[in-house]
Write a structure and sequence with these properties.
Layout (H helix, E strand, L loop, with lengths): L10 H7 L4 H4 L13 E4 L5 H10 L4 E5 L2 H13 L6 E4 L12 E7 L8 H10 L1 E12 L5 E3 L3 H16 L6 H11 L4 E11 L2 H17 L1 H8 L5 H16 L4 E12 L1
Parallel strand pairs: 1-2, 1-4, 2-3, 4-5
Antiparallel strand pairs: 5-8, 6-8, 7-8
Length: 266
């Protein structure tokens, strides 16, 4: 059974996903790409990173994988909106990839391993479908390492609630710090680790981040799960949303999100 996706697919979630590009979310991978490489994008989601990668290696060389038809259609729609044709979009499970051994030169996964039930198993599958000498590239957030200013107890509570819900769904919200260990456990001997951040500190960035965060905690699948499971009352979630918007109004407001990254040689 596929575990629930903690964030869900509400507009507030998708607006964040659609801000992702290869430049701001896969810069560590870009030096390794060139036209003609066969690339698998695991967990292609909103499709914006997929589109950028397709422009580099060639759309006919790209396969995108999503766990269910609804999310696969998001990828198809974005590719079509950007005028990109030729990408193969497949529905399948990261724990049992529906591809031949050594079928790809590059396998990419952005913000995926934190959500799957068995990340080491998923990485082993990515290694299987990568040709010898090819690379598996993964990037995941580390919620425990997120930092912000000014401090606010409501934002501490936001992180506590999200981490609890993600773990209840079988995920690992601190996946970023675990990527290197997971890759070693999956059988990779040659792994290059790195880290990068997203930072929201300008007035415009704070307003966007606070707005989407407020809506996610109070009015999406995450909020519904927290209420349903008795982890929080709706009134508390609404209060956290208010605190996020108050944080955004502070000219000193600063929020940084840490991500772990790996380039693993098959």
């Amino acid at each position: 059974m596929t575990p629930p996706y903690t964030h869900g697919y509400a507009p507030a979630v998708l607006s964040g996903h659609r801000r992702r590009t290869a430049e701001n979310s896969a810069a560590y991978l870009l030096p390794h790409l060139r036209p003609g490489l066969r690339l698998l994008d695991v967990g292609s989601g909103a499709g914006t990173i997929t589109a950028d990668l397709a422009r580099i290696v060639g759309p006919e060389n790209v396969t995108a994988l999503e766990v269910e038809e609804r999310s696969a259609q998001l990828t198809r729609d974005e590719l079509a909106a950007q005028g990109i044709s030729g990408v193969r979009v497949v529905v399948g499970d990261a724990h049992d990839l529906p591809f031949e051994t050594a079928e790809f030169d590059v396998v990419h996964a952005h913000q995926v391993l934190q959500h799957v039930r068995a990340p080491i198993e998923a990485l082993a599958q990515m290694r299987r479908v990568t040709q010898p000498g090819g690379i598996v590239a993964a990037r995941d957030a580390d919620y425990g390492a997120f930092r912000w200013w000014p401090e606010a107890p409501e934002l501490d509570r936001w992180r506590e609630l999200y981490e609890g819900a993600a773990r209840a769904n079988g995920g690992a919200p601190d996946a970023g710090r675990r990527l290197l260990a997971w890759a070693h456990a999956a059988g990779f001997a040659d792994v290059g680790p790195s880290a990068s951040t997203w930072c929201y500190a300008t007035e415009q960035e704070r307003a966007w981040w606070a707005g989407t965060s407020a809506e996610r905690i109070s009015g999406t699948a995450l909020g519904a799960q927290l209420v349903r499971e008795g982890r929080a009352a709706q009134e508390e979630l609404d209060g956290i949303a208010v605190a996020f918007r108050a944080w955004a109004e502070d000219a000193d407001g600063w929020f940084t999100l840490l991500h772990g990254e790996i380039i693993a040689r098959a």
